[in-house]
Structure formats: structure tokens, C-alpha cells
Design brief:
Elements lengths: L1 H9 L9 E3 L1 H7 L4 E5 L10 H13 L4 E5 L3 H12 L3 E7 L7 H6 L3 E5 L3 H15 L2 E2 L8 H18 L5 E5 L4 H15 L8 E7 L4 H7 L30 H10 L3 E5 L1 H15 L5 H14 L8 E5 L6
Parallel strand pairs: 2-10, 3-4, 3-6, 4-5, 7-8, 7-10, 8-9
Antiparallel strand pairs: 1-2
Helix pairs in contact: 1-3, 2-11, 3-4, 3-7, 7-8, 8-10, 9-10, 11-12
The structure holds pyridoxal-5'-phosphate (PLP).
Length: 322
């Protein structure tokens, strides 16, 4: 298995880095210093999910599967279906009916079978887990037996940041839903630190919705153990959908990363996500998904009252108008 994994990762040299650039105009508008954007929206399907979908499809093929499956609110499904199409492997994408529509036509055009269920996302993850086991599908969803590869995929973002800036920044701000992306980036920095390639691990600022996310809830209330929220009390909206959840599948890893790095987790309202996405568009001319602009909103709120010298890298996880 180890050899197979190395092969999947080795063969999978990413096609190119996502851009990282200093956001000078945004700095001026927000009265911040040393702000850099790492624009994951430049990936083929416009979100950071491309990092992990590619690895899953490679692994599925190497293991001899003919079908991959995923439970998703849209972005991850679009990414899995795209890489499945490129690699001529069948894909089944399960979407909660609440979200059906946002990226459905794209998923359909990639040739995926779409299952729409009147379930919450977290329940759909369990449904697809059972279905994949009975149908012998390779499951790309979080908390599956294959999800260990996600951390490896997201580590790449940390490696690129260090290569692009030349050292580790002071802070990294990342939107959190399940927490996988933040946990993976943190793991990448830890690895570089332990091998002596950087002299510190950045502080991590996790941003999420104020309408229900276990990571911001747990951090705000001082819990070291990730909490599960009351499913009936979370509120899903078109804006917060990539981030809202009552159960965060990699929430413990993300929470540990935030505590260990002496960072913070910050809740952001929908209106603020939209406002900051417009600020990014007006100041830097790039279109980002409002949920990803939560990372800038959180970094701004956290840093404006502090004096800090080193760089802040804001990971903009998705492009707008998907
Ligand atoms: C664009 C975007 N940003 C951030 C996230 C949150 O990522 P994670 O679930 O890894 O915390 C998602 C999750 O779907 C997403 O689609």
C-alpha cells in the first residue's frame, strides 16, 4: 500500500501552483499591512477541492475501481466529476436537495450520475458511505477510508506558500467547513518546520459562518474537544453553504491546529462575506466566492487591533460565479 501511495503522489505532480500575490490595494483599503492572497480559485474547477479530487481519482484508478462517489454541497462534486471525466472513470455525486442546482449542470455535463436526497449534508455522507460499500465504489467523501489523502493534498498549499514567499508567513487565514483544508495546510507547515526548512509555524485563523460551525463554536467556548451542534439549529443559506455544518468531519484536527499555533477561529455573517468579496473584487480585481472571503473578514477583524510585522496569507478557496 505504501508503495502505491508514493506512486499516486509522485505521479501526481500538480499542473502548476495557484497564484500568490501581495494585495497592496486591499491593504490600503483595510489599513492592514503585508497581506498576501493565495488564490485557490485558479484551480481547474475553481476551488481548493481540485487539490484532493485529483489524488482520489488517481488512487481509485490505481486500486482498480471503475466508479468513484462523493457526497457534496456542490464544489467538491464539481471537482470530483471533472477529474473523473478526465480520467474516464465513472462518478456518482450525491447532493442534498437544498443545494441542488448550484453546480448541477456542470456535474451533469461531466457525465456524472447525480443523486439528490432530501437529507442534511452530514447524513448524506453516511448514506454514500454505506452505498459505496455495497456497490464497490471508491468513496472520495470526508470520513471515508480514503480521506487520509486529503491532508496530503492540502499540505501542498503550505509548500507553495513557503516557496512563493521564501519563508513562513506570520499568519495564515483559511475558511473552515469540515476543517480539512486548514488541518492539511497546518500539517504542511509543521512538516517543513520539523525538517528545519522554516523557523516557525504560522498562526492559523479559521473563518466560518456565524450560523453554525463546530470549529468556531468549540474555539469560542474554549472546548479542546470538537463539539457537535444541534442539527435543528444550524441555518443554511446560499452564501454560507460551503462552511455551515453541525458536524465537522476533520474538526478536531483543525481545532488542534488553531490551538497549537496560538491562532483563532472567527464567525462571520453572510453580509460580511459578501462585503469582503466585493472589497477583494474592487481592490484587486478578482472574483471570489463570498464564503472564501470570510478568511479576509476574519483576518481583518483579528489583526486590526494588533501590531504585527510579518505577512498574513489569506487563502481564497474559491472563485465567484461558479
Ligand atoms: C470554496 C470552499 N471553501 C472552503 C471550504 C471549507 O473547506 P473544509 O471543509 O476543508 O474546511 C469549502 C468546503 O466545501 C469550499 O467549497
Amino acid at each position: 500500500m505504501k508503495k502505491l501511495i508514493e506512486q499516486v503522489l509522485d505521479e501526481d505532480k500538480p499542473p502548476g501552483m495557484t497564484p500568490l500575490f501581495r494585495a497592496v490595494n486591499t491593504e490600503c483599503a483595510l489599513k492592514l499591512k503585508n497581506v498576501f492572497f493565495k488564490y485557490e480559485g485558479a484551480g481547474p474547477t475553481g476551488t481548493q477541492k481540485d487539490r484532493i479530487s485529483r489524488l482520489h481519482i488517481n488512487l481509485a484508478k490505481s486500486l482498480g475501481y471503475d466508479t468513484v462517489s462523493v457526497a457534496t454541497c456542490g464544489n467538491y462534486g464539481a471537482s470530483v466529476s471533472y477529474f473523473a471525466y478526465l480520467n474516464r472513470i465513472k462518478s456518482v455525486v450525491a447532493i442534498p436537495s437544498f443545494y441542488a442546482g448550484s453546480r448541477n449542470s456542470e456535474i451533469y455535463e461531466n457525465g456524472s450520475d447525480i443523486i439528490v436526497k432530501n437529507m442534511k449534508y452530514e447524513d448524506l455522507v453516511e448514506y454514500i458511505k454505506a452505498k459505496s460499500a455495497s456497490e464497490n465504489w471508491y468513496n472520495c467523501s470526508p470520513s471515508s477510508e480514503n480521506s487520509w489523502i486529503d491532508i496530503l493534498g492540502y499540505r501542498q498549499i503550505a509548500y507553495e506558500i513557503v516557496q512563493q514567499i521564501g519563508h513562513a508567513p506570520g499568519y495564515v487565514a483559511v475558511p473552515v467547513g469540515n476543517g480539512t483544508t486548514l488541518a492539511g495546510i497546518y500539517s504542511g507547515f509543521r512538516k517543513l518546520f520539523l525538517s528545519g526548512e522554516i523557523d516557525h509555524v504560522p498562526r492559523f485563523i479559521g473563518s466560518s459562518t456565524n450560523l453554525g460551525n463546530p470549529i468556531v463554536y468549540s474555539w469560542k467556548h474554549g472546548y479542546r474537544q470538537i463539539q457537535t451542534l444541534d442539527a435543528a439549529r444550524i441555518i443554511e443559506t446560499e452564501t454560507n453553504e460551503p462552511l455551515v455544518s453541525f458536524k465537522a468531519f476533520d474538526g478536531q484536527k483543525a481545532l488542534n491546529a488553531i490551538y497549537q499555533s496560538k491562532g483563532a477561529a472567527i464567525a462571520v455573517e453572510d453580509s460580511e462575506m459578501i462585503r469582503y468579496s466585493r472589497i477583494i473584487e474592487h481592490t484587486q480585481g478578482i472574483n471570489v466566492l463570498p464564503a472564501s472571503a470570510s478568511a479576509l473578514a476574519a483576518a481583518h477583524r483579528y489583526l486590526r487591533s494588533r501590531t504585527y510585522g510579518r505577512e498574513v496569507v489569506v487563502v481564497l478557496t474559491g472563485r465567484g460565479h461558479n
